[in-house]
Design goal:
mainly beta, Jelly Rolls, disordered N terminus, 1 helix
């Protein structure tokens, strides 16, 4: 009896297991058909929405220099600018060509001959003493000095009428003599003579252009044997040639 009940339980357990196995088995395992043909591709989908802007990239390397383009057309002139500052004075240019002669002026009024500018003197030396070296030679004996333009005390002629003057001297010497004609403090010309134990007359002259208050006088060097006695005179002359 017990053996029979055990056999029945075993049958029931097999049925339950078989039933459970049948419920979980897929249908494909039961049907042995061939796989079907692949389906046609579907239509493309619509474009998606634009995404957000990306981050700014790093600055690229400079590009190569391009070829120069063709020259453009000349533009219209701009507006005139404001006047600039005055620049520094430039160098003096070369002298230009002589211009054409102007028209002849009207005849002037007749002048008065008594008002003509005058300046002249002639002075003599009256001493046997030799003059001092590099000092004005004194001529103290007046021959003519109407305008008083020669000053005996200073032993100099003073210009009071600007213009061209002629100055000369004649000197008696008994020995070597060198005489310089001085304008203000500058030597203009010099003359020298050499003699031994005999009288000799030497002379010299020059034309000078003087300004007002210029001074002219004579000087000697170490060779200073100038005399001034009767029969052996030494004189200094000067006169205006052309006034300015």
């Amino acid at each position: 009896m017990a053996h029979q009940m055990t056999h029945v339980g075993s049958v029931l357990l097999l049925l339950v297991v078989a039933s459970s196995a049948q419920d979980t088995c897929p249908a494909s395992s039961l049907i042995h058909g061939s796989p079907g043909q692949p389906g046609r591709p579907g239509a493309p989908g619509k474009n998606g929405r634009d995404g957000p802007p990306g981050r700014k990239g790093n600055q690229g390397l400079p590009g190569a220099v391009g070829l120069a383009g063709p020259k453009g057309q000349k533009g219209e002139p701009g507006f005139e600018g404001t006047t600039g500052k005055v620049g520094p004075e430039g160098e003096r240019g070369e002298q230009g060509e002589k211009g054409a002669m102007g028209e002849k002026g009207e005849r002037g009024d007749i002048g008065d001959h008594t008002s003509t500018l005058k300046s002249a003197f002639s002075m003599a030396r009256s001493t046997v003493m030799s003059p001092r070296r590099n000092f004005p030679i004194k001529f103290d004996k007046q021959i003519s000095n109407e305008q008083n333009h020669y000053f005996s005390r200073a032993a100099k002629f003073r210009c009071q009428i600007p213009g061209l003057y002629y100055f000369s001297y004649h000197a008696t010497s008994k020995g070597n003599l060198c005489v310089n004609i001085i304008l203000n403090q500058d030597r203009q010309v010099g003359f020298c003579d050499q003699v031994y134990n005999t009288f000799q007359v030497s002379s010299g002259g020059v034309v000078l252009k003087l300004k007002a208050d210029d001074f002219v006088h004579l000087e000697t060097t170490d060779a200073n044997s100038m005399l001034g006695v009767d029969g052996a005179d030494s004189i200094f002359n000067g006169f205006l040639i052309f006034p300015d």
